[in-house]
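Module 6 notes. Inverse folding takes a fixed backbone as the condition and produces residue identities as the prediction. Think of it as a translation problem where the source language is geometry and the target language is the twenty amino acids. Below is one complete input and output pair. Work through it position by position during the lab.
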């Protein structure tokens, strides 16, 4: 099965900054894939390379089986895209911008656009320049969805929006996925991503450190918290595959895949207090981010599904 998105050993530098470092990622059809990571992790750069808006220094990017460098215009015609920084003709009205965009697509676009704007509570005669940030985001999403794209790419689509607008974006993503189409999004709203994503890819400073189906990651990961009597004590070796480990004074926190709980008491010591729980996606991401920030010289080992 051909992936809807494929990045193969893609690297990109901007002067002295490495935005992407040998990134490889395949997203299968019918998947909602979330790119997660801190600001500057390389998420937006990866999306722009896929769309042909940036060129990689090395490696290959494909969307819907097409090379992003050679077929960038065709890719952007077939893909729906909502950037973080919206660029709309603010002198147009809601209806006029839909009429204008319809000229680039097959018949029926304007009718579908009107259905979306009506669903989002937008009025045809409203000028774009008079709309709130949330209303402009709804216009951008309507424009991106109205040609029924095989792939929807969203770059921080709900950043700065209120809870109701974020919920409407989520519902739209669920609708797209329910129709067997694909969504690739970057977002800081981890709790919301957790509700819709099938697959997560975590980027730390341009490196892909985790790519996995969300249900597998959550099912197989445990948070282990151990409280040691002395902050300088050597932490124990936890029986499992450690994703991340951070220390806060006397307390050590691990995110561990495939934890063998039967060996945990022996590993930490019978008199050492510890806790084990199922973490949320946000918990997992935060510990990974904290470990990487404390030890930036470390080279994270990518974890593949």
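Target side of the pair, the amino acids:
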């Amino acid at each position: 099965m051909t992936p809807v998105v494929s990045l193969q050993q893609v690297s990109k530098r901007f002067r002295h900054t490495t935005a992407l470092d040998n990134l490889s990622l395949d997203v299968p059809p019918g998947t909602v894939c979330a790119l997660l990571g801190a600001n500057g992790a390389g998420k937006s750069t990866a999306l722009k390379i896929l769309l042909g808006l940036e060129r990689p220094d090395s490696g290959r990017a494909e969307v819907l089986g097409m090379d992003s460098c050679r077929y960038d215009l065709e890719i952007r015609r077939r893909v729906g895209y909502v950037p973080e920084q919206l660029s709309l003709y603010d002198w147009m009205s809601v209806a006029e911008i839909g009429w204008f965009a319809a000229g680039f697509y097959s018949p029926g676009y304007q009718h579908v656009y009107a259905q979306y704007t009506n669903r989002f509570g937008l009025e045809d005669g409203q000028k774009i320049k008079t709309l709130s940030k949330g209303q402009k985001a709804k216009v951008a999403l309507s424009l991106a969805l109205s040609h029924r794209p095989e792939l929807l790419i969203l770059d921080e689509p709900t950043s700065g929006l209120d809870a109701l607008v974020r919920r409407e974006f989520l519902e739209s993503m669920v609708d797209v996925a329910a129709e067997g189409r694909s969504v690739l999004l970057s977002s800081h709203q981890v709790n919301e991503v957790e509700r819709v994503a099938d697959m997560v890819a975590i980027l730390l400073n341009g490196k892909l450190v985790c790519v996995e189906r969300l249900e597998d990651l959550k099912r197989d990961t445990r948070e282990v918290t151990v409280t040691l009597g002395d902050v300088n004590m050597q932490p124990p070796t936890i029986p499992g595959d450690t994703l991340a480990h951070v220390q806060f004074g006397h307390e050590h926190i691990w995110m561990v895949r495939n934890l063998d709980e039967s060996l945990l008491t022996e590993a930490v010591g019978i008199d050492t207090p510890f806790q084990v729980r199922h973490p949320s996606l946000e918990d997992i991401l935060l510990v990974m981010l904290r470990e990487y920030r404390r030890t930036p010289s470390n080279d994270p080992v990518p974890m593949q599904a």
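Reference fact for the lab report: The chain has two domains: 5-205, 221-294.
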